[in-house]
Amino acid sequence: MLSGPEADFSSLGQRLEAARDRAFVGREEEQALFRSALGTDRSFMVLFVHGSGGIGKSALLRRFGAEAAAAGRPVVTVDGHTVDPSPGGFEAEAGQVLTVERGVLLVDTFERCQGLEGWLRERFLPRVPAAALVVVAGRNPPDLRWQADPGWAEVLRVIRLRTLAPQEAMALIDARGVAADLREPLLAFAGGHPLALCLGAAVAAKDERASARWTLDKDIPEELAETLLDQLVGEVPSAAHRHALEVCAHAHATTEELLRAVLPDHPKPLFDWLRRLPFIESGRHGLFPHDVVRDALEADLRWRDPEGYADMHHRIHAHLAAQVRAAAGQDTLTAMGSLFFLHRHDGVTSKFQNWRGDGEVHEEAFNPEDRDEVLRMAAEAEGEASASDAAYWIDRQPEGFWVHRRTETGEPVALMSWVRVSGPAEPDADCPLIAAAWRHVEETAPPRPGEHIALARAWVLPPFHGRSPVMDLVQWRAVGECLRSDRLAWTFLVMRDPDSWRRYLGHYDMHDLGARIPLGRETFGLFAHDWRTITPEAWLERMSTRGLGLRRPASPQGKELAVLARTDFDAAVRDALRNVSRPDALAGNALARCRLVAVHPERDPARAVRDLLEQAVEQVRQDPRADRFHRALATTYFGRVPTQEAAAERLGLPFSTYRRHLAAGLERVAEILWHQEVFGARPDA
């Protein structure tokens, strides 16, 4: 039978809350302020708590919740980690506070749905009953528009959480059961940062010798936590667990599927272990560590094992790239955002990617009913001439348009297009941008039969132009379409203020054509990429290497490929067959630089070309109607005959008949290989 205080608990939850209550220290001023609001003090209705990661915001909100419940107030909690960052998702979690008497709404980790801040201020909170109390906690301070509004300035109170005072920090580690002789070293090491203190207390409880290795190198809490995490990483159960933790730190969010792709042995136990760790949190897209933990693990592995770090990076990158190619709808943006997150150490990418404001804006497929509204927005963004260009293509390819809306108000703030073009613009169309793009491809490497070009363009209101959540979504959609489009020859990005984008886009092999095209009140530039010279596979390889942010590439970069017209391609096939037994000649053949060979970058080019020829000749044989063509090919090029006359004699054919059969066989082989080059698949023989 239980005895002692444990016997008084009717549930595990009660015991957990009691333990948390005993371990909670400090924050007396904040608690006093909250208690006054629970009582008769109506000087404010919304309390906004902000502070750095690990500073104790969640613990304080749990304390507030217990105080409110003890006062008989209904408590509604919302966790930014798990809530869908949309008005509907938030209201589904928080809506009860709108209907109960004297409710208390506690919103934790608000930075995870920061994009809802305007909507929360303007749409949701004004509907809260006058007797309610709301607490919002996040890393970022509230937008200045809260306090600029006389109404909100009267009912909002903002407090910033700071590190614990020395006596409070000592009380925290004392409550965690740290041995007396380890308390001073731990306090000197971690200062008053609650997360560092708690993690340090966990280490000290397991390893009393740990304190001898603690040193106060810097007074920045994140740096202190980084040194502390070196101890935690060293205590994982196995090398596999260490690798799982490193994957979780490197990826934006970790799922069991991701672990299976990177660490195929026993991913489920590793995932279950990760989700139980005190510094690992769960979100909509998977597991992720606290930021200070993520940074420490990243820095440790990059310093300790650069090759292992690069290998892990490439594995994660390959998995996410496959997800992008297989994704549909909004999943494309999620996968692309995770892919670009791997580039956060790349100085160029980090200057142009925002990775913030989740929920501030969202993408919707274009709805014809919204045509007038979005065209008015396009005219506001770039003028009537540019909006007319949008209208022309919306009417012809509505499926190639997406609208970005501000979540707070629902108003459109951007329009994005992905226009497919297979030939010059129609005679009656005034499309200078497409005309310039088509002129370029005609002068360099025209699309071949079955191929097309695409123009990606965005009409963006001025507040969101440049580095913003809108431009993140626009970039992710454009790159996602590049990687997913079938038989795409060229991509052209249409950019306003092109000079400011040149370095960034050039970093990703989108090259400025130098043309500056006026359209109404704006001037645009074109940035181009030929996907036949640098295939999506090779481009992703380059992207993965650059995402490491290392001085030296950790993997080979894809070679540029040859883009052959059909006549040149057929000539290369004939030349390759004539030299099928000469590896040096095959290695120098133009086929060795074509896409159908590039799909096997690990193989010797000469061997790859010979294998393709043999497979194509074999495919000719599989058609019973072409048996005589196959025999002419096999005898001439693989039968070791010195001359065509000898081949005809071996086949028992008149020379003229033999030549007809050989020509027909060559035509079949060239057609098979051309279909693979352009369409990526074999035609039926």
Biggest sheet features: 7 strands, mixed
- Specify the helix fraction band: 40-55%
Oligomer: single chain
Mean of all residue-level pLDDT scores:
83
User: What's the tally of helices?
Assistant: 31
Spatial strand arrangement across the major sheet: 8-9-10-11-12-14-13
State the distance separating the first and last CA atoms. 81 Å
* Principal-axis shape: elongated
Rg from C-alpha positions?
32 Å
Question: Would you report the number of β strands?
Answer: 14
Report the sheet-strand fraction.
5-15%
**What class would the helix/strand composition place it in?**
alpha/beta
Report low-confidence residues grouped into runs of 5 or more. Answer: 1-5, 215-225, 551-558
Protein name: ATP-binding protein
GO molecular function: ATP binding
Keywords: ATP-binding, Nucleotide-binding
Q: What this model shows, in words?
A:
It is a single chain. With 685 residues, this protein is an alpha/beta fold. Helices cover 51% and strands 13% of the residues. The chain is built from 31 helices and 14 strands. The protein has a seven-stranded mixed β-sheet with strand order 8-9-10-11-12-14-13, with helices on both faces. A five-stranded parallel β-sheet has the order 2-3-4-1-5, sandwiched between helices. Strands 6-7 form a two-stranded antiparallel sheet. It is elongated, with a radius of gyration of 32 Å. Mean pLDDT is 83; it is low at 1-5, 215-225 and 551-558.
